[in-house]
Amino acid sequence: MSGDSAKPRDGAQAVHRTLALLHCFGDSPQDLSASDLARRTDLPLSTTHRLLRAMTATGFLEQDPDTARYGLGPTMAELGRAAYHRRGLHRAEPELAALSQRTGVTADLAVRVGARAVILVGSSLANDHGRALRRPLHSTALGKVLLAWSDAADREIGTPLTPQTDRTITDPRALGEELNRVRAAGYALNDGESASGVRTVAVPVLDADDHARFALALRSSPEVITGERLGWFAEQAAACATALEVVLLPPNRRRTGPRPVIALP
Amino acid sequence: MSGDSAKPRDGAQAVHRTLALLHCFGDSPQDLSASDLARRTDLPLSTTHRLLRAMTATGFLEQDPDTARYGLGPTMAELGRAAYHRRGLHRAEPELAALSQRTGVTADLAVRVGARAVILVGSSLANDHGRALRRPLHSTALGKVLLAWSDAADREIGTPLTPQTDRTITDPRALGEELNRVRAAGYALNDGESASGVRTVAVPVLDADDHARFALALRSSPEVITGERLGWFAEQAAACATALEVVLLPPNRRRTGPRPVIALP
């Protein structure tokens, strides 16, 4: 928000504020009060109230009559469903379910939005909390894949590389080397860099420009995704990613070259 | 949009514009160009471009690099999924699927947003087009249910009652009488009022205040939903609506009185 304060009040400011308010609900599993929202977006309470009124009137938000707290409204459910179906993501669901069943571990599909990997389909969403899943790029296998197969300029994520565990890569140069390794190996590994005891293998869903349009991850513990079985998990994920390129990309946007070969260390 | 033009430029205008732009995608199954969007929202092209830039930067919209057209972005898919799950709508899916299978006809669940009934779950969404389904209130069984079980003030929908077929109720007084009949009968009927040859029976999902939080409809032709079988279809829908009250409403918001008895003419 603060980045906008120098700009003229040309409407873009209000758009960013509206979107910032909506985003609060992506990060929070429960309804929020007007003062919660003002605090999280760093907006004056009066401005927040004014924006919330407009957003409630159009169904983007909904106010609980008992608690006066706000939640995402029916318009968001409607448009969100349209966005989900129009991107063909419902067609990815059975592919991910089959992959998860075949491997016995969690399978997730994410897309990059700004400086986050956002999980849109997969086992992590199947549970009941309905919490949106936004993950940092630098400390996740999903994020490393999205960065490794992107333009050089897009590799610059600009934010400080916040440590999640003592294994998180926090040095930008070390991250650059890691991304080169990922690209050469054909897969990314997150070995306790987000949470200790969690190991994740990810591969790209590539488009015609050799960009990762999505990242596909298998997640479990190091006892399940052992060093010996790492290659097998990566191959399983890569086979599913190839299917997803067909399911999610139109024919004219699909990769024509060979898939990256999984190269174990 | 025009209703805003007299208001001071206090941010609410930009919010309404942003939401109007997003809404264009709920009504259109395909991507839209900046000039399409300017025309549909009645905004100057320069303003539209400025808002589209802000909306694309945050992932609410996405621009196709080949066609330069806009579509709903990953943030909408993410937040929409959060809204859908947090409202428990995924728990309604198996109930509606079972109802559709038991009756052999289309089963849909809608919520009211402004002057529309918006289908959020059901057979009409299961097909592949991903188009959002917004229906008028006065010419649909879903809409009649949402109006009949609401506060008197909410029955005033204010818009002209546009005819869809020669059977559509277009006189506000006749609609008022129809809503009283619907409430007394415990169900609503749309008998060729939206499209000829289509007959729909709908019942309310009621809350503790006796308001229809959702409307549940069964849709087919008059040859399937015959006069003789109407009662059976309405009873099947009502049984499912009772289950949905449990699935979709927290215990303290649930109806305590008896369910409306289905009274055939």
Automatic annotation (TrEMBL), chains A, B:
Molecular function GO terms recorded: DNA binding; DNA-binding transcription factor activity
Domain of life of the organism encoding this protein: Bacteria
Keyword match Transcription: yes
Every IclR-ED domain range: 75-250
GO biological process: glycerol metabolic process; negative regulation of DNA-templated transcription
Keyword set includes Transcription regulation: yes
Keyword list, A-Z: DNA-binding, Glycerol metabolism, Transcription, Transcription regulation
Domain (HTH iclR-type) ranges: 12-74
Transmembrane segments: none
Role this protein plays: May be an activator protein for the gylABX operon.
Protein name (record): Glycerol operon regulatory protein
Organism: Nocardia aurantia
Classification of source organism: Bacteria, Bacillati, Actinomycetota, Actinomycetes, Mycobacteriales
